[in-house]
Amino acid sequence: MDRWAGVEGLEGVGSGFAATRDGIDTMLRDRGLRRTSPELTAESLLRGAYASAVLAGSSSSLDDVRAGRGDATAQAALRVSVELLGLVPVFARTPLQALARIHTLAAAGATPDDEIGRPRDAESARRLRDLVGLLDDRLPALLTAALVHAELVTARPFGSADGLVARAVERLVLVSSGLDAKSLVVPEAGHLALRPAYESNLRAYAEGGRAGLQAWLVYCTEAYAAAAEASPLRGG
User: Fold this and answer.
1) Spatial contact of 128 and 99, defined as CB atoms under 8 Å apart
2) 51, containing H or E segment
3) Which residues, at least 6 apart from 235, have a Cβ–Cβ distance to it below 8 Å?
4) Hey, how many other C-beta atoms are within 10 angstroms of the C-beta on 124?
5) Which CATH number fits domain 2-234: 3.40.50.300, 2.60.40.10, 1.10.3290.10, 1.25.10.10?
6) DSSP secondary structure string, 168-180?
7) Distance between CA 111 and CA 120 in Å, rounded?
8) In angstroms, rounded to a whole number, what is the distance separating the alpha carbons of residues 54 and 94?
9) Residue 209 and residue 2: Cα distance in Å, rounded?
10) How far apart are CA 231 and CA 184, in angstroms?
């Protein structure tokens, strides 16, 4: 947990996330109040599933995913997206249970049944418990989402489909916090749009130093701005 102490004070982090939050709030308020519908939420989730699948190695197109005929990775991402918002109350009460369910959806058919929904070893279980502590730290929602995402990808607590899980939980944080209650921002698409920076900054985070942590968080301020641009509220 000490690794995350004082993250808001890192150069460019606090101000960057505040500016990005303002931009998201403005977009949701100005474009969303009169136009929000379940169809827009479904479209956001669909776009997110596609982007997350591509980041995990899928070669399926958005049209493939929309038609339900994507490859195995795309199908896994789609399964997660269909159930994700229903897990909001579970995530609020028992986050570990929600994470286990997301992994079950993401890894079904590709992971032995006795490994689905379970941390791969004692150290992974500890990292997941630390992650739950992070959720209780009252950091700004965008900052929490960014840290949770990087930790799940780099720690690989489940040993399979961790990227799909990480990006789903990132979205879940934004929804459950109330920042994006109707899930209209598409964080997965923001990362896909900036894929080289996404991957290089995750590697920097994994190295464990403060510089890598800072680089990842500053990158996320840009990625979340791109995520707002990818919202179906923007049209297109």
Assistant:
1) yes
2) helix 38-55
3) none
4) 17
5) 1.10.3290.10
6) HHHHHHHHHTTTT
7) 12
8) 29
9) 12
10) 6
In the block, tokens 């930790």 appear at: 151
- Sequence spans of domains, the chain: 2-234
pTM to 2 decimal places: 0.95
DSSP string covering 138-162: ---HHHHHHHHHHHHHHH-SSSSSH
Burial class (CB in 10 A: 0-12, 13-18, 19+), 123: exposed
Question: Token match 């006795």: residue?
Answer: 114
Residue-wise pLDDT tens for the chain (236 aa)?
567 888 888 999 999 999 999 999 998 887 656 567 899 999 999 999 999 999 999 999 999 999 988 999 999 999 999 999 999 999 999 999 999 999 999 999 888 888 899 999 999 999 999 888 888 778 899 999 999 999 999 999 999 999 999 999 999 999 999 999 999 999 999 999 999 999 999 999 999 889 999 999 999 999 999 999 999 988 75
CA 16 to chain centre: 18
Interior/surface letters 17-31, b for 16+ CB within 10 angstroms, e for the rest? beebbeebeebbeeb
